[in-house]
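We emphasize that the prediction below concerns an isolated chain of 533 residues; any contacts that depend on oligomerization or on bound cofactors are therefore not represented. The input was used exactly as deposited, without trimming of termini.
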Amino acid sequence: MGSETSAPPVKGDGAGSASDPDGPGVPEGAGAETADHDGGSGGEAVSGSGTRAGKARPAWLRHRYRVGLITALAAVVYELLGMVRLHTFRATTFDLVIFDQAVRGYARFSAPVSPVLGMFTGRGMDYLQLSDHFSPILAVLAPLYWLRDGPETLILAQAVLFALAIPFLWLFTRRSLGIGPAYLVAIAYALSWPVAEAADFDFHEVAFVPVLTAAMIERYQARRFLTSFLCMFALLLVKEDMGLTVIGFGACLLVTGRRFDGVCVAAIGAAWTGLVRGALIPMLGGDTGDFWAYGHLGQDVGELAVNVVTHPLRTLALLVDDAGKVDTLVLLGWPVLFACLFSPLTLIAVPHVLERLLSDRPSWWVPDYQYNAFVVAILICAGVDGIVRLGRIVRRRWPGIDGRALPAHWAVCVVVVALTLVPRFGLGQLVHADFYRRDARAVAAAEASALVPSGVVVEAANEIGPALTGRATVVVWGPEARMAPWVVADVARPVFPFNSPDAQRARVDELLQQGYQAVFDREGYMVLRRTGQ
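Result of the prediction step, given as a token string:
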């Protein structure tokens, strides 16, 4: 499937290559790592002839400090968002503690168990995180825990990983549109709402996806095929459903002329998905039914496929039968002004989007949470490629119109759109002073957490767990009796997994009757110690 060699510069009319004039995001000059143009805004601006008598340095060298600065600033902003949430008790046990416990297991050269997840599902303290979501790539974060053991490390790692997509997006856009648009697109990604929402919701394995998908696409554009496919294989280790993204990558290669590669890649994605869901997760103690959210379409993949094929219109209707789905679809396309619709690169994102929109779980549809970060880098690359293709269409159909300014105008608009969306999503909180302050409840939460000794097992309310996981074994406080030595409860407002504060107060009463003693009670937080501990 290709080799790690650079093809010679190809002059052309925009996106495409010598053997594939409509290749995915491979504009003229692709593979010419020394091509550069400081003000260009069209496909013609980036060509092999952009070098100056062979003396120009590679673009990434000439611009590494500025691109690095954007990358570093983005990482700082994402880390600030996550750390403030942790400091003010906005972070939650589900899911920050789950990943913290798993990575701690890797760091100690033991199994990546998650007691909080195991006790919640009734499968015990030794329940493997891999049997919930197959994410062995988390092991690469283990050395960071040797430096600092705690959820703060995950927040920092996630911030850096999200930001590391920026150099690859810059390189991709520079080859396609020129230097100026490359910076604008990089900034637009840094401000993008899917990344903001992911950074605003603890830590998730999605942190690896933007950089890996951006590198996969950019390295393919540069004809560094071996590196591209290595990034593709790394994606398979992020989560059990990333095989769907690989299938989309295969579809993209297939429709753009690389038929053999496309078929092989799609087959790898399908085989891996079947292997992980059908064999590895059950072998590790998981249940493949835990995340089957398609009962309305069938009880298994076979029934779902038959339903989709035999009722295509009904299936299509499911994609827009809820306002949350429509909102998400519009918000995914709007940041690139829907230019992604003109690019085959969008096919890479389609399977993952369909997986979400066809499900029966509203939390998968809505713009909130981390799910849209799985496709953000893909759609930005598709938008860049799409605007190149749109410019070609304009020039061919209306020869009198000079379409060379179109990419530059598009890039400016993309940044403007990103800025307009900032207040609506996670990054918008950073401009409000109250976001940084601990309110009375947060102060009480900190005091309650401090009363719990280190090294114990503690049932903690969902927002308390992250403050304790670095020094105690945390399980989530819930309706079930777990008889942990210590309990930190919240009876003032609804907390997961309870249905109401009344149920929470009733659970505290049960604990008191079972011999627990209240040693702290303020702002709705109660610390209970089992008698004799």
